[in-house]
Amino acid sequence: MGRAFYLLSTIPSKGERKSLDLYSHSAKTKWGSVMIDLRIRGLREGLSSAEALAEHLRLTRAVVDSESKVKGHYVRRWNAQLRPNAHLLLDLHAECCGLNKLQQVGVLLNVLLDYHKSYAVQISTFCDLIAHIKSSRHVLPERVLEGKSDRDHPLWVSSLFADVHELGSYIFDVMKDHLLVFDLKTPQGVRRIESHLMALREMFSFQTFTKKLNQKYKSLGKALETSIMSAVTKAFTFLNGKAEPLRNDPEDRLRAFKGLIQHWLHQTQRILKDIVPLFKEVGVDYITWYFRALDPLLCSEATWLERYRAADEESHTVTFELYLSMRDIANLTEHVKDETVRAELKIRNYHLWFSPMVANWISRAQSLCRQYIDKAIQIDKVIQVTDEATFSSSAVDTKGFLLQVGNFWKHLQWPRAAESYSYTAAIVQHICDCAVYYAGQVYTRVTNEDIYKDGQFHASEKLCIILNNMCHLQQALEGLSETLELEKYYQWLEEQDAQTENSSEKVAAIARSLISNLLKNADEDIGNKISLTVQNISEKVNLERFFQDMLRSDKDSVDEETVVPLLDYLTHNLQTLGDFLLPQVLYRVLANFWATCVHTIAACIPNIPKKPGNNYIPR
Question: Are 275 and 178 in contact (CB under 8 A)?
Answer without folding.
Answer: no
